[in-house]
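Two entries, shown back to back:
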Amino acid sequence: MSYRYEFALRERIGANCAAFERRVIEDSERRAATAIALVDDAGEAGYLFIRRALTMRRNPGQYALPGGRAEPGESAEHTARRELAEELGVDLGPETVLGVLDDLPTRAGGVVTPVVLWAGGAVTMALDPDEVHDAWVRPVAELDHPEAPRRVTLDGVEGQVLRMPVGGEWINPPTAAMLYQFREVGLHGRTVRVHDVASPLWTAK
């Protein structure tokens, strides 16, 4: 399936997110947010994806969505937009928020909230080398891979780990869980829950 970067897609994703009754976790002091930032990629819809800096203390070199810790009193929407600007130099206003997906608990004991953003066109990235090793625009259509999601069993992990395709690789939760829920809710208007998806043990570091 192709996803043209056009007003109709923006309206569809916004309507699907608005109709979605998201799951909220209230009792966590360690909150973070990620940005599913939708951009124009030669006329097709893409989203921004990064590899974390190799020098970072936690999860160096991890493939992820742009994002990070919330500041005191900061909403998930503001956190996602701030982190996107800090990490990639992409500054989007509050009007670009299309919706918010489920709060997800992490193995590290925190909660991360995915925020869907519509950039309104192509973007130019300016990477912060302390935060980001590399960054790409990935095609939204890739999320509809016929084998996605894959579910695998890992040693020491209770339950199956859900994986999603990004750039020819199969990535793990929590990022894979966010992209899967975005596909189902945002693109197709289907309600799925991913808070109980298992993550690899290394994501607790």
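entry 2 starts here
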Amino acid sequence: MEPTRHVKLFKNGRNQAVRIPREFELPGEDAVMHKEGNRLIIEPAAPRSLLALLATLPALEEDFAPIDDLPPDDVAF
């Protein structure tokens, strides 16, 4: 079962807000929110660019075989 925790709601200007405890922290700076019945669902937003997505991937730690850097073939125009 998922962990649960009671949190306090508060006003931030005209918006209602909630502090997200560290154990529920979401990655990144954006999230998507929607309702399912009485439940409020907050999910991490999908990365907005390929570079953002690549930045979330772990580094490769395997060695690759060297690639011969052959000169290009002549091209006739």
